[in-house]
Amino acid sequence: MSKAIGNTCWAIAEGYIPAYGNGPEPQFTSHETACLLNTGEQDAHVEITIYFKDKEPVGPYRVTVSARRTLHLRFNDLTDPEPIPRDTDYASVFISDVPIVVQHTRLDSRQSENALLSTIAYSSSN
Questions:
Q1: In the chain, N or C: fewer CB atoms in 10 Å?
Q2: Which pTM was predicted?
């Protein structure tokens, strides 16, 4: 598929990285992931802004998703301009220069019975 699908603005209203996990790392580290899909012919340059309930937003975090590729980006690994705090509610907005698709996944491994959730992000035409 060479046709770009998706949108250039996405939001994940729910975000939370548990402070700890149960099991071998890095596979069972509790984490949040944004799965970014770029089906187009051009690289996607994406800026991510993180929003909090009690402080100013942080960002942009910048990533590139190569043309016709996917990127599974752990929020735990974002460090520039600053790491995303654990045990803190947050939301995220993704702005891309070409259409992409964004999906949100969380692995909560605080118990030996792991919990996994996944949902498509909200797409906006802005």
A1: N
A2: 0.82
State which amino acid sits at residue 98.
V
Please give the DSSP secondary-structure letter assigned to residue 30.
-
CA distances from 5 to 46, 57, 68, 84, 120 (A): 15, 28, 11, 29, 14
**Cα-trace Rg, the chain:** 15
Gap between the Cα atoms of 122 and 35, Å rounded: 13
For residue 22, give both structure tokens. Answer: 């149960």
Bridge-based pairing of strands 7-15 and 58-65 is unpaired
Percent of the chain residues topping a pLDDT of 90? 52
Exposed e or buried b per residue across 64-94, where buried means at least 16 C-beta atoms within 10 angstroms of its C-beta: ebeeeeebebbbbebeeeeebeeeeebebbb
pLDDT tens, residue by residue, 13-43: 888 777 655 555 555 555 578 999 999 999 9
Residue 1 identity: M
Tokens of 56: 């100013």
